Amino acid sequence: MPRLVGEGRDGWLFLVGGSNDVLSFYRAQDALSEPELDAWAGLLAQRSMRLKRSGIDYAHIVAPEKLSVYSEHIEEASIDVSRAPSSSLRNRIAVGTREAGQLLVDAVEALTIAKTGGHDLYHRTDSHWNATGCTVVYEATCRRFDAPVTLASGRLGEPVRVQMDLGGQVQPPRTEQVQFFHPSSSIHRVHANHLVLYKEWHDLQNEPGLHAGSHVIYRNPRAPDQRRLLIFGDSFAEYRRNMLTGMLSETFHEVHFVWSSQIDWQYVERSKPHVVLTELSERFMRSLPVDDFDTLAFATARLDSFRASRVGSVGEPDSTTDAGGDAVDEDPPGF
User: Half-sphere exposure of 270 toward its Cβ, with a 13 Å CA cutoff?
Assistant: First the structure.
């Protein structure tokens, strides 16, 4: 079986395998092809043009693999970081017009510059950026959308020692001392769809099969930027408040998050955002989104399928109500 985790120096662990065969992205014969990069550049341009017609600003974030930022900490043959999808797409878009350059929030550049400060930007035993790295990307996102950078320093919780994803894949398992971002008390979740409520009711927030389709809305009456931001993203943004979604809620009055690599155009029309941000982990770039997502239909089908597999489990509700017993509406209040 191909290995999942690569051992680096000084306790650094890297995702190198898995269903996306991460290491292959950094090798000449398996990196994204020119047609694939052209397709990505075309998709982002099409999204931008369609949103611009409605007066909506748009940008995309490629959430870099740890290898794209910290390759110096691992010894692997034939690794060429310049072939990483994040860097290749940036270079492909850079040959276009100045407007094309606005399509990306360049997380790779921001993180590469920031790491010279000596602070870890990714968890050493996980594949995700940590709170410090997330803050770097938050600041770059705010700059891209001309929004104030208002995240206060010292907003981290007490250090805790935990076993994270990659640390649990090696023998013996490794733990790491981490600090998580704590959002301000002025941020309130005003909507969570039936999929999110189900996960919380059953303590399944980390169930891999129940991530896509998660949908939440946060409001911050003290936010300095009164615009509505809509995010389509994954675990680097998160539906919970400890990652990029929570940080951007410090700045924007209203932040909608949908866990999807695709845009739900009907939801865009209903929610009327001022800004749309898409975010996708670099490891998923072999699949080009088709943007025909239906958040409600997908979340319902995913939840129905999961619940059918758990029929008879202790505590499993027998209705389609949320954790509080109220019927779940298609849209949040006020739409």
Answer: 15
